[in-house]
Amino acid sequence: MKKAALLTLAVVLAAGMAFAYGPGPKGVRGGGPCGGAGYQSPCGGGPYGGPITDFQPVTEEAAKASVEAYVAENFKGFKIEKFDKFVMPRGESYQATVKDANGNVFYFHVRVDGSVFGPITAN
User: Fold this and answer.
1) Predicted TM-score of the model (pTM)
2) Nearest-5° angle of CA 54, CA 55, CA 60?
């Protein structure tokens, strides 16, 4: 009886792990982002993760304009103090340092595709 219970428990645990981790690196579940082959693996954004052939990274001027529009629209009274450019493995990234009326410092990031996210507190 004990052996049958232990065997059943082992089968249930094995099946649970198989369903939890999925088919492997190239599958939808269980693999890392972009196929699971590291940061140099091609990332998709098209239908079903296919590569985007007409992708153009954001320029510095477009990144500045998008941060200025985002801050002006959503954060009244905030002022952009500094705009920095970083070279990343997949392109360039931008960061704006912003102050509010009370002197609090925040960061806003612009990704390679032009999307803005923040505020991130500096302290």
Assistant:
1) 0.55
2) 135
